[in-house]
Design goal:
Structural class: alpha/beta
Distance between the termini: 51 Å
Shape: globular
Strand order of the largest sheet: 1-7-6-2-3
Number of domains: 2
Strand content: 15-25%
Largest sheet: 5 strands, parallel
């Protein structure tokens, strides 16, 4: 009773608001209100995961099987607003929430049982320490909950790279060459893996990490991101 009263008091003084429209949330809503949820700019990549615009981006860079994004990315759009909160406003719960939403959508479309585990693109330790968490790992954890998959957190970034922003396609590819590795005691042989990140632009980062997994024995690597543009 006392705990409920305290929670009600906090909700009155500091009401939870929608991450998109800033309206107050009902008790049954989490992070995003129902009206905004139904208007999320979702893609249909998972319905043609082997033959869509994202799959064509990584063609020639890596032998991945499926490539998917949960949301369409647009500057100053809803997806950018959510990503900004996740990456720069100390809201790791946003990554888990979006991962859970997308995982539920994938389950509805027959993907449950497709993969053995999910991995996230790692941040360099210095950047992760500065941010406090890896936003892509938060997304992976949400997917894990919905899909019933273990999360493997043994893919590591071995060197610090400059930002991919404002780089050309080929500069992005060169920037992430030989950046990733697996810790020595991890065995991905004969595994089907879902590799995830927050955003996909050219696909260079995801392709570089996927190639490490394929080179160390994974039989299949699929890619999923929170948001991607055309």
């Amino acid at each position: 009773m006392r705990f409920t009263f305290f929670n009600d008091f906090l909700a009155l003084v500091f009401p939870q608001t929608c991450a998109i429209c800033r309206c107050s949330l009902f008790d049954f809503e989490e992070l995003i209100c129902r009206p905004c949820l139904v208007q999320l700019p979702m893609t249909s990549h998972h319905k043609r995961a082997e033959d869509n615009d994202l799959a064509k981006k990584v063609m020639g860079l890596s032998q991945v099987t499926r490539v998917m994004a949960f949301l369409r990315f647009a500057k100053k759009g809803v997806s950018q607003k959510l990503l900004h909160q996740l990456k720069y406003r100390n809201r790791p719960e946003m990554g888990r929430f979006l991962g859970k939403l997308y995982g539920q959508e994938l389950v509805r479309n027959g993907y449950k049982g497709t993969w053995d585990s999910v991995l996230a693109i790692p941040l360099h330790p210095a950047k992760e320490k500065r941010r406090g968490y890896n936003q892509s790992l938060m997304f992976a954890e949400g997917l894990s909950d919905a899909l019933g998959l273990p999360v493997q957190d043994q893919l590591v970034r071995t060197k610090f790279t400059t930002t991919q922003t404002n780089k050309s396609r080929w500069e992005r590819i060169a920037n992430v060459e030989n950046v990733f590795s697996l810790v020595s005691d991890v065995d991905v042989r004969n595994k089907k893996l879902l590799l995830v990140d927050d955003v996909m632009t050219t696909g260079a980062t995801l392709a570089a990490a996927a190639n490490v997994l394929l080179a160390t024995g994974a039989t299949q690597v699929d890619l999923a991101v929170i948001a991607a543009g055309k």
